[in-house]
């Protein structure tokens, strides 16, 4: 059976139970692979993909070992997925090397792009782009959080984790860490695409990725992106996320010895005083704090 016909039969639900399970297991396997990081050589990109394949649990490795008594599509399906990933990587990474800026923990960084747009990176964030012909091909990649003030011109694109953001001229904040995404618009309009979903948001609207879907709501302009001034506001934010922000801003490691998986925080802290920030977050929740240098124990 040809691979395109097999995939079409899967879409049309015309496969046998065994063939359906095989195809869906390969899809589950390949979804765990990502396009390699921009700026890497072809050899490094290929090595990363092979490492990811070899590190899969045994149940996924089994998918790469076709039964010798049956003709299965495993090898060419996986090979096709890898080739597609490398092809996308090659297209985005061909030619000139990327320019990359990183704001380390405890720091902010402001970048003026070749088109005079400005980007402010929050701590623990990275921005990459190609300088050559940037005015005609205005796209950047972001890992972390950043505030964008975009000059009018060609479409401006921000590629993040599972997201694609398009604007013409506007100012907006992007939070893109792990599987979390939040885009908040201060001026203009922004189109946000993620995992097959697409929304257009305007001033004082934000889009959040919640359980794989984009949800749109209003937000407070005076309490969003205030991290640029060292102030952090939270509204029913998972406590784990707040702890990660504390670690980034104060360059500390926080060990929590209590169960906080289902706890949420609404409040504020400032980067000006670490002790006060820790107290503002943990004391109202009935948690005690012990500090030793850059080590913090919460229980």
Summarize the topology.
Layout: H1 3-11, H2 17-31, H3 42-54, H4 58-61, H5 74-93, E1 99-103, E2 109-112, E3 118-121, E4 125-129, E5 138-149, E6 156-160, E7 163-167, E8 171-177, E9 180-187, E10 189-194, E11 197-202, E12 205-210, E13 213-218, E14 231-238, H6 239-250, E15 253-256, E16 264-270, H7 274-282, E17 289-292, E18 295-298
Parallel strand pairs: 5-6, 15-18
Antiparallel strand pairs: 1-4, 2-3, 3-5, 4-5, 5-8, 6-7, 7-10, 8-9, 9-12, 10-11, 12-13, 14-16, 17-18
Helix pairs in contact: 2-5, 3-5
Structural summary, described in words:
This protein has 299 residues and is α+β, with helices and mostly antiparallel strands. It folds into three domains: 3-93; 99-220, Jelly Rolls (Sandwich), CATH 2.60.120; 230-298, Phage tail protein beta-alpha-beta fold (3-Layer(bab) Sandwich). It has helices spanning 3-11, 17-31, 42-54, 58-61, 74-93, 239-250, 274-282, and strands spanning 99-103, 109-112, 118-121, 125-129, 138-149, 156-160, 163-167, 171-177, 180-187, 189-194, 197-202, 205-210, 213-218, 231-238, 253-256, 264-270, 289-292, 295-298. Strands 1, 2, 3, 4, 5, 6, 7, 8, 9, 10, 11, 12 and 13 form a 13-stranded mixed β-sheet that branches. Strands 15-18-17 form a three-stranded mixed β-sheet, covered by helices on one side. Helix 2 packs parallel to helix 5 (74-93) and helix 3 packs antiparallel against helix 5 (74-93). A hairpin with a 2-residue loop joins strand 10 (189-194) and strand 11 (197-202). It has seven helices and 18 strands. The relative contact order is 0.07.
């Amino acid at each position: 059976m040809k691979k395109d016909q097999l995939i079409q039969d899967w879409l049309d639900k015309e496969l046998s139970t065994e063939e359906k399970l095989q195809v869906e297991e390969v899809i589950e396997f390949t979804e765990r692979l990502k396009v390699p990081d921009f700026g890497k050589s072809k050899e490094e990109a290929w090595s990363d993909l092979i490492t990811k394949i070899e590190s899969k649990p045994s149940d996924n490795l089994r998918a790469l070992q076709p039964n010798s008594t049956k003709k299965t599509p495993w090898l060419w399906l996986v090979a096709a997925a890898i080739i597609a990933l490398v092809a996308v990587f090659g297209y985005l990474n061909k030619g000139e090397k990327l320019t990359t800026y990183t704001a380390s923990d405890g720091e902010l960084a402001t970048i003026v792009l070749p088109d005079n747009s400005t980007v402010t990176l929050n701590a623990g964030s990275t921005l990459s782009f190609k300088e050559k012909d940037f005015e005609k091909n205005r796209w950047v990649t972001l890992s972390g959080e950043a505030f964008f003030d975009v000059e009018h011109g060609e479409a401006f694109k921000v590629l993040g984790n599972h997201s694609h953001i398009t604007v013409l001229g506007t100012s907006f904040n992007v939070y893109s860490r792990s599987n979390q995404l939040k885009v908040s618009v201060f001026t203009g309009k922004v189109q946000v695409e993620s995992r097959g979903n697409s929304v257009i948001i305007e001033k004082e609207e934000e889009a959040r990725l919640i359980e794989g879907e984009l949800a749109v709501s209003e937000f407070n302009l005076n309490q969003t992106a205030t991290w640029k001034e060292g102030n952090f506001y939270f509204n029913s934010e998972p406590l784990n996320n707040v702890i990660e922000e504390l670690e980034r801003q104060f360059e500390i490691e926080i060990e929590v010895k209590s169960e906080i998986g289902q706890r949420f925080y609404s409040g504020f802290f400032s980067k000006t005083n670490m002790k006060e920030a820790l107290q503002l977050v943990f004391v109202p929740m009935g948690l005690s704090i012990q500090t030793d240098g850059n080590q913090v124990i919460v229980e």
